[in-house]
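Hi L.,

As promised, GCN5-related N-acetyltransferase:
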Amino acid sequence: MAVVHWPVELQHGQVGLRPLRAGDGPEWSAARRRNVNWLRPWDATQPPGAEDGARTFRAMARDWNRQARYGRMLPFVITYGGAAGVGARAKWPLVGQLTVSGITYGSARWANLGYWVDEQYAGRGIVPTAVAMAADHCWFTLGLHRIEVAIRPENQASLRVVDKLGFRYEGERPRFLHIDGDWRDHRIFALNAEEVGPGLVARLG
């Protein structure tokens, strides 16, 4: 049986990962509204006929944290202290989200990882740092073996993240996920624990 580690907070430099909380609703919703055009091409959508109806942010946060306590997922928000690192960490703004989902134990021991970042904070190395911290936590604390990232071929910014961290390209999966209103092709990238040495945080410049 898996040992459950939740809640978890991680930090490297001015980038933090902490659990998504029910009280994050106003800040999270404001970021989503501010970035609706920036995120729409990459956002997961419900296929026709799906019965997972609309729910409040608070209900979503509670459900995701319940699943985290069962060891099924890790719902993080990304926080950023700024270049100068001013202010207490607890007050760092929410600048994105990173979710480790599909955690599977037994003989598989793998998970997949997804993320988004506020456009005004893009290009600062925040997402590569967040991905590195989360992946290292999965390998070295949870004991997972494989971390997988699925990216649309058109998403150049996300492709740069996995390239920077050295994820291995494994090929394309046609019509893999329902994104922006249709089934979209994705490129699959992965790393196994024995490929990462001391971890991905150590690969950051």
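The chain has one domain: 10-203.

Thanks again for sending the construct details.

K.
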